[in-house]
Specification:
Elements: H1 3-14, H2 20-28, E1 32-34, E2 39-41, H3 44-48, E3 54-55, H4 61-71, E4 77-81, H5 85-94, E5 98-101, E6 106-110, E7 120-125, H6 131-143, E8 147-151, H7 159-163, H8 166-171, E9 174-179, H9 185-190, E10 197-201, H10 213-220, E11 227-229, H11 235-246
Parallel strand pairs: 3-4, 7-8, 7-9, 9-10, 10-11
Antiparallel strand pairs: 1-2, 4-6, 5-6
Helix pairs in contact: 4-5, 6-11
């Protein structure tokens, strides 16, 4: 249950549309569901505005399906990240509303999509090899109720590609910038806009990129004052934080 859903339930109770016992049941439910292999946080949406997100890496398909089923007993939407094809096949058998975002390595299940809030989150990536991380950020932002505008393959090796999108950059409320190699793109983008820029280093690159460490250090050392940095390949974290920023008044 999200905060908005809790408010609607209380308003319905006040109007006589639902009984006291139903309201008490909703708020007295234990905040944790023990599945044996997982302790599912059933009040995450009430505290934070979005349900617990399932990280698929290291989990069996059966575990992912059971966690998703428990969340969907009371939630309208579920996001599963870092899944493989065998996770997607198992989820598709169980949930008819399931969408497999193959490039993002994510699955979304929505009974009722959130209405889109005003403003856009621009998701920008340097090269095609960065697409899985960029798409993870975009899918996360979208399921959380945002418009995600994708601007892909606009890295600094061909700066004219980025400059051609200057108007799109300036219109976004917050920008997620994904890059590997030397990780220069977030600093360039941040120098063009007055909005928050969330930089995402990827593990794309040759040996001296040290699996994203070079890009991470480059982004942390950005001379642009409006850049914040998440972990290597953490598209989900960037999309989540961008959504929190975009919902601010």
């Amino acid at each position: 249950m999200t905060t908005a859903e809790a408010i609607r339930l209380l308003e319905k109770f006040r109007a006589g549309g639902v009984g006291r016992d139903r309201v008490l049941q909703a708020f007295q439910a234990a905040p944790v569901a023990d599945l044996g292999f997982a302790q599912v946080d059933t009040h995450r949406a009430l505290r934070k505005g979005f349900p617990e997100v399932i990280f698929g890496g290291g989990k069996t398909p059966e575990q992912v399906v059971k966690i998703a089923a428990k969340l969907l007993e009371n939630e309208q939407r579920v996001l599963v990240t870092r899944i493989h094809d065998h996770h997607a096949r198992a989820l598709r058998k169980k949930f008819k509303h399931m969408i497999h975002h193959e490039t993002a390595r994510c699955v979304t299940i929505e009974k009722s999509p959130l209405p889109k809030r005003p403003g856009a989150i621009a998701v920008i990536c340097a090269g095609t090899s960065d697409l899985p991380v960029a798409e993870e950020a975009a899918v996360t932002a979208e399921i959380m109720g945002n418009h995600a505008e994708r601007l892909y393959d606009v890295g600094v090796a061909g700066l004219h590609r980025l400059l051609a999108k200057s108007e799109n950059l300036r219109q976004a409320n917050v920008l997620v910038v994904v890059a590997g190699m030397e990780g220069a793109l977030p600093s360039v983008v941040a120098g063009l806009v007055s909005r928050p820029v969330i930089a995402v280093p990827t593990s794309v690159g040759y040996g001296a990129s040290f699996k994203g460490l070079t890009a991470l250090l480059g982004m942390l050392n950005s001379c642009a004052s409006n850049v914040s940095v998440v972990n290597i390949d953490n598209g989900f974290g960037a999309g989540y934080v961008a959504s929190l920023i975009n919902r601010l008044p």
